[in-house]
Amino acid sequence: MKQNQNKVITNDKLIELKNNDSIEFFVGFVSLITFSKELFKTNNELSEFIKEIFGFEFKKYVVASRTLMFARTIKEIYNKLDKKSIIKAKNNTVFHIDMLINAPQKEMSEDNKLKSTPSKKGKKGKNTTTESISKWIKGLRGE
Fold this sequence. Notes:
With 143 residues, this protein is mainly α. It has helices at residues 2-5, 11-19, 23-35, 43-54, 60-63, 66-80, 83-106, 110-116, 128-141. Helix 2 (11-19) packs antiparallel against helix 7 (83-106) and helix 3 packs across helix 9 (128-141). It is globular, with a radius of gyration of 16 Å.
């Protein structure tokens, strides 16, 4: 059951994403998805996810690098998507990731679910990823 505590992407983070309207937070969450091999073990799986959620297709040399896929995805989000499209992509992301992380749990018994739920602790500060992405975006905007 300790494996559940080590997960990068949790139900709490999905709920936080769903309730947060910040584009910077969404970008930070996309970085978690992109760089963690927890959900998408291969770059091709990640590429298919990006194609399904955002509609962006990448050439093979881009798919070979998660870093490059992330950079291109964020670039396309800021250059091609309007606020409404970003919200739609965020909601689709929440739905798909929820299905991925909770599919194995639905097969577990109710007793195992209760044992595997990590304790909830209050958040003390900003996520450093979100903070870094926010600074990066402000730089792009010239603020």
